[in-house]
Design brief:
mainly beta
Length: 281
Amino acid sequence: MAETGFLTAIENYLQNALNAAALQMIGVAEPESAGQLPALVLSLESTERAGNGLGERSTLITDGALRWTATIDLANPVLPDDPTFRLLDDARLNLILPHGGQVRQDGTPGPLAPADLIVNVAGNNIVVVAAAPAAGQVTADPIVGKLTFGAALPATGLVTATYFLGQWEQRVVRFKGVVRIDACAADSSTAASIGDAVVAAMLAPDARNAVPRLLRIELTGLGSIGTTEQPAALRRRIVRFAFDFESEDNRPASSGGVIARIPITTKLNTGAGLVTLPGNS
């Protein structure tokens, strides 16, 4: 979710920016003991997305490579969106991944090497090879997204495949709101100094560079030091910022889904009779 990603980006930035403050904890959880102090607690007091069609756009990306991980349940190897489509053949040797159009990690097409494809079956890594696979090995057809294993897959367990796609959809969502940052410490002076450090860090130019697509950040509130709170016996100072933020969401919606090969027969009337042409589609 875009809002969760925003809080994570703020957390990562403050973790580095306030390293000198020797924070014991930073995130969305409240400290429960004195050993977790000083701490920063992040939350969104309000958030509002732009209306449909406003501040939201999608772009088809065809330059580069999108890393993606798919997990398939061997006890029920079907597409989540189409439970009637079985991804594993009866011999349990050929597995169709949810996406075709796979590329190397540098975005170029061609045979996949171990650096371009990671396959794990029931907790065991499978070696990616280019030739016919033996037991413990797998080969890939990147165009259709098919994996061929050297030994039959087990009846239960998970197959996890991490691969790269050469085409995907990038959706940009814009939203605004108020982010609340609670500086929690064992004493009032530490809570005050950490609160001041948060203000300086969030309003510094480095914040725009460290938090991609942070369009606006403004201080809207700097609270007093609260009384002692249990169970951690902490003192709290609340700092609030108004913000505008854009979130990128990369999804393989345009990468190409499952490709099935269907036998067809075409008959042409040449005038002298019918010609039958077998083929695949």
